[in-house]
Amino acid sequence: MITIKSKREIELLRVAGNIVYKTHQYLKPYLKPGITTQEIDDLADEFIRSEGAIPSCKGYQGFPAAICISVNDEVVHGIAGKRKLQDGDIVTLDICACYKGYHGDSAWSYSIGEISDEKKHLMEHTEKALFVGLEQVKPGNRIGDISSAIEDYAEANGLGVVKELCGHGVGSNLHEDPEVPNYGTPNTGPRLKEGMVIAIEPMLTAKSPDIEILDDDWTVVTEDGHPAAHFEHTIVVTADGYEILTGE
């Protein structure tokens, strides 16, 4: 069931989203060769709690870490550990924080040192795909308008669209209706209404969109070993468009 959020709920979601944004900004200076993903996770956990929130991911359906940290060919749901970031890596931090029962959710991919042209192209156009999708957000449009815009942009730039993963509603639950795929047909799906809160999150690959899940039952990787990128904002539909809740 898709819910329309009250002004009170939107304010709490705005605070939760801002904590997620601030966590990203806090972590960026630490993203250098040599840091372990566990060290990043510990920093995120401490910062989120210092802001009066809790990491939404920790314990979510058994997930063991505070945030999802995915490197290179890992699409989503990477688990922190002893792995050290290296020059030439790209790393995605998918950060979710719960503030007074309401969630913020935003993923962003970052380059570590000097990255390949393939990775530069992937990151540039995955981020742009997010904003192409956002351009479709206004009352009266449909979820399919967002989905098809992202798909068309991704394919025009030679990127693969992972169809098994999608965006979603956000509220007092981390994942709510509606689903927001990154592919689809214009003028289909639920109609957008003022007060709806959704996470839009292109998850694109440099080559084939085919994926598999590692033995940890969480980490999703590309089958061909080529890199993936992931950019996500939580937004609220407004009277004339949208407001990003996980931005500055």
Mass-distribution shape = globular
Tally of DSSP β-strands:
15
Overall pLDDT metric: 98
Order of helices and strands: HHEEEEEHHEEEEEEEEEE
Computed structural class: alpha+beta
Euclidean distance between termini CA atoms: 30 Å
Strand proportion: 25-35%
Radius of gyration: 17 Å
The main sheet comes to:
5 strands, antiparallel
Number of helices: 4
Helical content stands at 25-40%
> Are there runs of 5+ residues with pLDDT below 50, and where?
none
Q: Strand order of the main beta sheet, please?
A: 8-7-9-14-15
Description:
The protein is an alpha+beta fold and 248 residues long. Helix content is 27%, strand content 25%. The strands form 4 sheets. A 5-stranded antiparallel β-sheet has the order 8-7-9-14-15. Strand 7 and strand 8 form a beta hairpin. Helix 3 runs antiparallel to helix 4. The chain is globular. The two termini are 30 Å apart. The mean pLDDT is 98.
